[in-house]
């Protein structure tokens, strides 16, 4: 695949305009499933997918924008159309930078998203879904995310969704006198457990399908009364708990209304995606259930403090976005230029070999004479290719991809080596030229070809 060709297209379903039900409907069991589906679609060169608790995004590289839109059009059929945002080439690239920098997060500037982008990048690399365009784009996004957090105050006092859940609980009840339960010992559950321990809850339970994982988490939190239970012990922990944070990776509900029927006065915050707690549990007497939407009010104050820093990050993204576009242009131009010089070098070496053979037949050439002839050939190649080299770089800078793509077709790395009907000195076998234009060579293109190639095409006809 070409190092710098193709168009990026993307779709996103995220918290800014989609409900959690829509995000849940769009998400798959894992990113590999998404990438596998995309890789099976004809015309998809590269793919990248990002799934978090409040967003689903996927990107593809295709030959044209229309193809990319068609590939993604039915990718989330169970999601309302108003919730799906389609993104073109530049919008997709800029959005990736914004996501990694934390500007698109529910909690402005939160750190967790950067790790999630890294994990998604590694997943895509492992399954071979990334190519040169998306690899550069996601790498640039990670770089921007790192710079934003080290060079600005975008994450000062940053809270993840897990710690935001604990902040919400702290507003609703006195945590220092509470018995707390965290369901799930993954990344989000770990953050919530540490935040609850820091809030000095009286007792902290951690429930998890794997008791070993729950035990490991209770041993890492700074709390003397941290107890691990398996899911078989969840009922007794629920009865004892005043506050609950659920954050498992389960595909279905872990808790329903009946599980909480005997829990008494309880405040439950469900930060899992898909949801851990059935919405029906909110109707149980004494139970107050909060979902992801409730965290927005908790994070408002933090968000206001980070707005000034966000302006600096926006300016950083503007610069890095332009650098990314320029790098694509340079790579595409350099690819053509490299092919052009490689092709010319092959012709030069072939002609030199033939010339030396003829000269040697008339008498020995000294090494100095050989060097003079070779130097002259090098000079001719350099002088002849200098103007098209400059023109190609100008075309890339001006987004003149028509010129770039035409040059790609004319200066292929296999220049002069395809087919078996071309003479030794011919610039292009006609069958290969035809191949590049679907069997028919445009008149305006043929008129610009060297005389010998035009003659070959005429003979072939």
TrEMBL record:
It comes from the Archaea. Its EC number is 1.2.1.70. The record marks 95 as: Important for activity. Residues 313-412 form the Tetrapyrrole biosynthesis glutamyl-tRNA reductase dimerisation domain. Gene3D superfamilies: Glutamyl-tRNA reductase, N-terminal domain (3.30.460.30), NAD(P)-binding Rossmann-like Domain (3.40.50.720). Residues 174-298 form the Quinate/shikimate 5-dehydrogenase/glutamyl-tRNA reductase domain. During catalysis, the active site Cys acts as a nucleophile attacking the alpha-carbonyl group of tRNA-bound glutamate with the formation of a thioester intermediate between enzyme and glutamate, and the concomitant release of tRNA(Glu). The thioester intermediate is finally reduced by direct hydride transfer from NADPH, to form the product GSA. This is Glutamyl-tRNA reductase. It comes from Halorussus gelatinilyticus. The gene is hemA.
